[in-house]
Amino acid sequence: MVKLLEQRNDTTAVFSIIIPRIKSTKSLVPAWKRNILRMLIVLSSTGLAIIFRNSFALVAAFTGAIGSSLLAYILPCLFHLKLCHRDLPWLVCFKDTVIIMLGILCSIVSLYSVIIQLVKNTSV
What is the CB-side half-sphere exposure of residue 43 using CA atoms within 13 A? Predict the structure, then answer.
């Protein structure tokens, strides 16, 4: 595969070998549905900012507890296992699995902490 890539000079041909062609979401989901989803996300964020105006930092921490651990620990290891699991030694698979479990555990603990602080600080 490496020799094949070294022999080709056309970058589009190289990228078509490395990255398979994937259908875009534009052809799968109509534009009006995507726009409604965007509008709902913005309106829900606005609603949370209004409801929790005194403790919006905790709402941001809630989002960070989910997103950060997912993007930093869980998804990279899941992709690594999904794409390369047949070529990896068992120790690397074990390491990825441990990192995934620790990422899920840390996400749960941080979510619990943020929810407890939200309940304590919110007076509705």
Answer: 6
What pTM value is reported for the model?
0.59
Identity of the amino acid at 91: L
Q: How confident is the model at residue 81 (pLDDT cuts 50, 70, 90)?
A: very high
**DSSP classification of residue 55:** G
- CA gap 124, 122 in Å, rounded: 6
Q: Residue 54 and residue 117: Cα distance in Å, rounded?
A: 12
Cα(61)–Cα(111) distance, integer angstroms:
8
Tokens, residue 113: 């902490």
Does pLDDT of 51 surpass 70?
A: yes
